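Cross-posted from the bioinformatics board.
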Amino acid sequence: MELRADVAARLKDFLGPRLSVAAADRAHHAASESFHRGPPPDAVAWPEDADEVARVVTICAAAGIPVIPWGTGTSLEGHALALRGGVTLDLSRMARVVEVRAGDMQASVQPGLTREALNTELRATGLFFPVDPGANASLGGMAATRASGTTAVRYGTMRSNVLGLQVVLADGRIIRTGTRAAKSSAGYDLTALFLGSEGTLGIITELTLRLHGQPEEVSAAVCAFADLHRAVECVAAVVQSGIPMARIEFVDAATARAFNLHSLSALPETPHLMVEFHGSAGRVREDAASFGELAAEFGATGFDWAVSAEDRARLWRMRHGAYNACRALRPGATGVVTDVCVPMSHLAAAVAAADADIRAAGLIGPMVGHVGDGNFHAQILVDPDDADEVAAARRIAVRMAERALAVGGTITGEHGIGIGKRGLMAAEHGEAWQVMGAIKAALDPGDILNPGKLVPDRN
Amino acid sequence: MELRADVAARLKDFLGPRLSVAAADRAHHAASESFHRGPPPDAVAWPEDADEVARVVTICAAAGIPVIPWGTGTSLEGHALALRGGVTLDLSRMARVVEVRAGDMQASVQPGLTREALNTELRATGLFFPVDPGANASLGGMAATRASGTTAVRYGTMRSNVLGLQVVLADGRIIRTGTRAAKSSAGYDLTALFLGSEGTLGIITELTLRLHGQPEEVSAAVCAFADLHRAVECVAAVVQSGIPMARIEFVDAATARAFNLHSLSALPETPHLMVEFHGSAGRVREDAASFGELAAEFGATGFDWAVSAEDRARLWRMRHGAYNACRALRPGATGVVTDVCVPMSHLAAAVAAADADIRAAGLIGPMVGHVGDGNFHAQILVDPDDADEVAAARRIAVRMAERALAVGGTITGEHGIGIGKRGLMAAEHGEAWQVMGAIKAALDPGDILNPGKLVPDRN
């Protein structure tokens, strides 16, 4: 399918060279970091402000042409693939910090700004934006998938760190949701509705973010456990105890091995917890000591403390590199990445069951987890050209999701639905999935915003 | 208007004596704690489970009869008044703790359960539910208004403490939103959408709540400031410093006087902060000391520490009694209660401007505030039979709201819209208010759920 010439001309009219139908640009926006692939969009647009986004949407809506927002392309579930063609809105030219209001601990930013770029700009203010999904994702994309990551146990997910949005609706109207106040009871929480809507209800063109004070002191550590159960049970005890963990990450034995190969670390090849504490010097000392005592009760050994900024950076670079390090355990392999989240009391059993499934299939599937939230990932390594293997890995992923649902958990803690999880939405939400469809139909009657994703197909 | 006989008969059929058309029952549900009054509903129903709620809604929907949920009637903006008649669903017989999952730090409860009743039941578990709006409200009502209160600065509002809901929709379908996992990225955040929807999108019939560990140690204090500016600037500094306050409440000089008259306290009649610290013994000591040092920089004096449970209870009973204590400053008066919330950097100016307006009108309007969130209330005391006075107070309330909006704040931090704030919704949300209307129309096409509230009138 090609973009109708009259539509292309109308877009070209104000976008000029910032509209492309070149094969390379289209192909770039048909790829993703995971095994998901889609057809290329018919065109790629690089708008520079909300008005341009609104003009693109208005023109496309009139012609019934899909519009798909694109951040940095780091999503793992194929969220930004142009399933039905159309125009991909690449937001990388809307990457400005609009305003930092240090006294209010807030920043207004454009959606294409990445979290690392924001934190670089914030460095001198004494503030930072804590949500950290690992990838250097765009903040608009993180909002659209309700992302979280390693620090959510302390600072919350995008849900608690986005105060308001500017959004372009399917009919081209530009609205603002939320306020700059810390809380509000003024009607439907539209901010929360757009967070996690994956581009299906509107295009986010600005975000008001809640910032946090850079901690006076930071201390991190890694420690080893004899087995998975003891590590996970330690996490449950730590969460119950109320020790204010800034990070508490699980890595399994296979991931420890991958770290050793990839980062030249020398961890024992057993399960580990990687933890971090933020606060005043006195509080960090007390928190770290409390954690150490508790962990020792679960047999933790080999505590390796990282107090200097350099050592901590190395530690978290290793953790954030898990995706690539684990992939290197099987050269040429692609990871089928899972993302369930379960209530704490079911975490150990869920991790163990996934581990058993992966072994039974004869596959390698290292696991890591934001276990303070009950969220963990297996990265099942498959030969992308071996259809049987891919199918086996996806069956395991589905079983993990079904097991999570059986104990009241969710099919995705932080990666979102995209095209990878849509088949499980009815199982998680039942009739409530239809309610999502009704909201989508009300706000996007022409079904032009990222169609084919998230909600049920229309009758 | 009377309930059609056939409809009444169909309801009576399964509700029996739990459906009443008696004048006294109807009048009780036409009153509110504030000056708002509405016509009585045509009938009051006391359902005992979600199925009964669904049957009432289904029957009323078919006949085009409004259904209005009712918790404890402590709302301050007339949320539960039957503006167009219909059936008030009194949820006081759905007040059970369904399940406590201590290991997951969660409870499932029915909507009519009050927060105090829940915390009484939780006492032995080591857990508690922190959201504390002062009134012993029902948890369903607190969810429906996205309530918060004194502890939100530490534990968040209902938005962060409700993980999931069971909801009866306008067509009688019963859905579940959210999960028992700590977080999820699985589609539209319907839980957040129903929180704060004030009964206009569905009837909440069960809540999954996030619980917190009872702190090992609690310490509270009150201290005096020379003037309002110093007190509020101290709050901003405390929030910036990251000291994890469990409560930080402002009371102005008039409120201090009301406390002295009502609670026999002996506070200097100047502005005060009332604070509380939660944590381990060591952390509470460190936090309290950090606060004390900071507050002293802003001239705080007369620190009165309340460490015993008894002393703390007395302190917060005094704070929670502010509404009645202040009313007693002018016998026979009713309070017009305001509820703006502003970004921290604008808090001092907003409080001062409100104070000046109230003085200029020759009225008494004591102020208190959950100032860690930028939220404060004036309770403007008026003779309810003096229309001029009521009008003057309401003009001040509107001016406070407009000033809050001018600095990016909100017309209501925690009380909600009801009938008192609906006239300000367009000013706060602009075109986004129409989006709320579109969602309401999609989920309640017959406009039977708490009609005449929150969203724009239909064309």
